[in-house]
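[User]
Protein folding is very new to me. Any chance you could explain this protein sequence and its structure tokens? I have pasted everything here:
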Amino acid sequence: MKKAVDIIVLSALSVAICLAQSGLIKADPENLVIRFIDIQSREIIRDMQADLFVTNTVSLEQTTLSQFIGESGEIETQLDGGEWNITAHLDDISTSGKDYYGRYIIRSYEFDKMDLFILPVGSIRGTVLDKLDNLVSNAKLKFDCQTQNGGKFPISSDEFGSFSYDYAPVGQCRVSAMYNGAAGFENVIVEKGNTTEIMIRLNKTVVSKPRLELDFGFILMSIIIAVIGVFFVFGKKEKKGKDKTAAQELHKRTKDVFSTLSEREKIVVSFLLDNNMESTQNIIKYKTRIPKTSLVRILHSLENKKIISLEKIGNLKKIKLTTWFLGKE
């Protein structure tokens, strides 16, 4: 009878151990120390942020562990007895991209300390454009890299035509995009810890501007042209009015000489009369819209008629109405 009881106890214990190992029942959490080792340089990884995404292979229980790997190169965690899938993301915050990626299956009851080899990675940021440089959203993406040791890649561009591949394998990759029969690709070299920016241009135009947008642009342009025309017409009338007013209030000599001037000469003289009798050649050109070559001839003519005086100060040409023209001598 005692022997039968012992057999039953041993069998129950064996079943309990198997269930604990499988994760169907929880055993006491085990302390597990992990070190990550660069698979290329064989160096222990230190001074990085580690994010571990852990899933029990049987119960599908999920957990996320975030720790900073210090000088010791070790991180410590507790896992219930069983088999676990672990995805590791390692990031050095001093680099522009991500740095390491690894996937593992471990049995937490087998070891209390593990060294895990991990792969160096970099990051890719991209934009998909059509032939006219319009952003293309929801374009299908394909990544053909020398190795398939990176993380999960994006399958399409977002609503802004952009995409990100944070954990891309180091080496050469060809990134292809396709949308409505238009296609394009870009080759990129991924370097550890770096972010590489790329633009993929499709071989066709696939984004067209809405008709409403085109109509609105046409209407807006028509309004602007109309407003400019109104200002031009009324501005010209106002300028002629100013010429007459200025001429009426001046000395008799000034009015007599003013009446003999050409239309453009009157514009220049009126501008000077309205601006304290003096200005510069550049300002007169800007305000009156008279071309530079024409303005030079007009100023030369007015100077010969003793209506203005020119004074050159460095590169600046200062223009003044003469006291003779103003009837002050």
About this structure: The helical segments are 2-22, 211-249, 252-259, 263-274, 281-288, 292-304. Confidence is low (pLDDT under 50) at residues 1-27, 210-214, 242-248. The chain has six helices and 15 strands. The two ends are 145 Å apart (CA to CA).
